[in-house]
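REQUEST FORM: STRUCTURE PREDICTION
Request ID: SP-0412
Submitted by: Lab K.M.
Chain count: 1
Length (residues): 121
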Amino acid sequence: MPALRHMRPRWPWSTLALTAAVVVVQADLWLSRSNMPQVFSLQGQLTEQLALNRAAEQRNQRTAAELADLKEGLEMVEEKARRELGMVRADEILVQYTTRSSGGAGAATPATAPPRPASIP
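STATUS: Completed
RESULT:
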């Protein structure tokens, strides 16, 4: 039987120490607070949040463009109402000068209109 005793494999201490170190590192990697499954989960959440942020950014840009169009549109409407309809704001006084077309001295006479409440803000 002494011959069989020498056939049994012997593990050197360095191999056992390296195996233990690998096990500890792997256990820390998979079981610690910041383990790999949690990292993968957080990466998935980050990807979803980035997609939501892109969609929100596009919505914000569309809203800003619509707001700019509305502001510009109101200015155009106000300008047209002033020019074509003679509309004035509540704090304004409209003064128009007209010329006499028949007889008279041909001098311009001022025609003042009292301030009217504006229909445009």
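NOTES: The beta strands are 94-98, 109-113.
Reviewed by: T.R.
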